[in-house]
Write a structure and sequence with these properties.
It contains ten helices and twelve strands. Helix 4 crosses helix 5 (130-156) and helix 8 (190-196) crosses helix 9. Helix content is 40%, strand content 24%. It starts with a strand and ends in a 5-residue tail after the last helix. By secondary structure, it is of the alpha+beta class. It has a five-stranded antiparallel sheet with strand order 1-2-9-4-7. A four-stranded antiparallel sheet has the order 3-8-5-6. The chain is elongated, with a radius of gyration of 20 Å. The chain has two domains: 4-156, Jelly Rolls (Sandwich); 159-233, Winged helix-like DNA-binding domain superfamily/Winged helix DNA-binding domain (Arc Repressor Mutant, subunit A). The protein has helices at 14-19, 29-37, 93-96, 119-128, 130-156, 159-167, 173-178, 190-196, 201-213, 229-233; strands spanning 4-6, 39-44, 49-51, 59-65, 68-73, 79-85, 90-91, 105-108, 112-118, 182-185, 217-220, 223-226.
């Protein structure tokens, strides 16, 4: 299926959207208009590719709406999800500056709007204002820190700990003591989340059912109701 390019005349104000993103919010109107001129907004259906391994990397991207998964395929044909990108998040910034092709695939997990910001436009702004380069470096550093954290988690934590950590990733200390039921909606399929955690789908489902049997969660399709946040955080199988 071919993706649809959305024009500014369609009602989407590119300069205004860019101004609301942390990377660009210090830019003035003239700078935003120059940057917008180097952008492409695409409407993708679920399953459409943003880019594929080996294609030239001449832009970085922002998921305006929907979700995008970054993934690679092993020589044996198995898929490994690297990251799931949600609304407002950017991806492929670092790759754009290497001068090399994409080393991962990016695919829409749902109907999505994806903004592609051309390399030439970005380089032009960097040449005019070094502060823009510093903001880009900060964003790339945050992404690298997150990936290092993921590698550390995979190396040091068991599969059970990874699943519990995923379910509790947005919970606060107050949630642990409130005693209230907390509902976590799985944003994508269990198989995709399992791949993101470097687990098989079967193992991921088995852990969820183990936690349910232990009275810690209740599963309702894509919703996981955490019955006791504190007990789940401290769970050790018998």
């Amino acid at each position: 299926m071919e993706t649809t390019v959305v024009r500014q005349s369609s009602g989407f104000n590119l300069p205004r959207y860019l101004s609301m993103q942390p990377l660009f919010q210090e830019m003035d109107a003239a700078e935003l208009n120059r940057l917008a001129a180097g952008c492409t907004l695409r409407r993708l259906a679920r399953g459409d590719m943003v880019f594929r391994v080996g294609e030239p990397c001449e832009a970085f991207h922002v998921a305006v709406t929907g979700q995008v998964k970054l993934f690679v395929i092993s020589p044996a044909g198995a898929e490994k999800v690297i990251e799931i990108v949600g609304p407002g998040q950017s991806f492929a910034e670092a790759l754009m500056f290497t001068g090399r092709p994409y080393i991962v695939n990016a695919q829409a997990l749902a109907d999505s709007l994806v903004l592609s910001i051309g390399k030439a436009a970005v380089v032009g702004e960097i040449e005019q204002d070094s502060r823009f380069a510093l903001r880009m470096l900060a964003g790339i550093s945050r992404r690298l820190h997150g990936l290092v954290h993921d590698v550390e988690s995979y190396a040091l934590h068991s599969g059970l700990q990874r699943v519990i950590g995923y379910l509790l990733r947005d919970q606060t200390a107050e949630d642990c003591v409130s005693g209230e039921v907390v509902t976590v909606s799985l944003p994508v399929s269990k198989a995709t989340i399992a791949s993101r955690l470097s687990l098989t789908p079967e193992y991921f489902s088995r852990v969820l059912h183990e936690l349910e049997a232990a009275g810690l969660v209740r599963i309702d399709k894509r919703e996981v109701h955490i019955l006791d946040v504190h007990a789940l955080a401290g769970y050790q199988p018998g």
